[in-house]
Amino acid sequence: MSVLSSSSESTVLFEAIARGEENAYKALFEKYSLKVYAVALKWTKSAFAAEEITQDVFISIWISRTMLSSVKDPQAYIYTIIYNKVNRYLKKETNTARILVTYLRHCKKYCNETEETVYAKIAETMINNAVEKLSPHKKLLYKLNRQQGKSYDEIALQLKLSPHTVKSQVMKAVKFIRVYIKDNALLLTILLAQLVY
């Protein structure tokens, strides 16, 4: 827990957040967001997962703000939330890997598909997994643009957004998907190697 600094200021911030003071919430975010991100990154080894976990930690704090005044040790409370979020993330990733291994073994034993088709399905599965991890807004924009073939202008008109906003959010979604696939490429290589031997 040495990553998170201790201070009575945190207790004061928690009490203010419990009263619904948004400025205190912003101050807490500024004080701890980089520390939360560092811990999440250390455990997940994924920049995007760490970013998502950091956001989830602070969303959880805000949602449960009415209980914060009874928290005796804010640093321990934040650390516990990080631990739970990381643990949930790692379990989900492990399950995804298990499903992928089962799928690959099934394809190898029971399918007459070419190797390229199997790889294409694996890539499609990884992309779909990445898309599911996007925020609902980015997921919608990505699907409208990349899966339904709509232009930025068409999407902007349909959703009453600026074309620049649509383009920016779609590009962020594409970047996230690329990094997700890159982060999971090692796992994919290990899984494929297991199938060969």
List keywords for this structure.
2 domains, disordered N terminus, mainly alpha, Arc Repressor Mutant, subunit A, single chain, 197 residues
Task: Give an account of the 3D structure.
By secondary structure, this protein is an all-alpha fold. It has two domains: 8-87, Rna Polymerase Sigma Factor, Chain: A, CATH 1.10.1740.10; 112-196, Orthogonal Bundle (Arc Repressor Mutant, subunit A), CATH 1.10.10. The chain contains eight helices and no strands. The chain has helices at 8-18, 22-44, 47-63, 74-110, 115-132, 136-147, 152-159, 163-196. The chain is flat. It starts with 7 loop residues before the first helix and ends with a helix.
In helices, the fraction of residues equals: over 70%
Low-confidence stretches: 1-5
Provide a count of the helices: 8
The count of strands amounts to: 0
Q: Based on helices, strands and strand pairing, what is the structural class?
A: mainly alpha
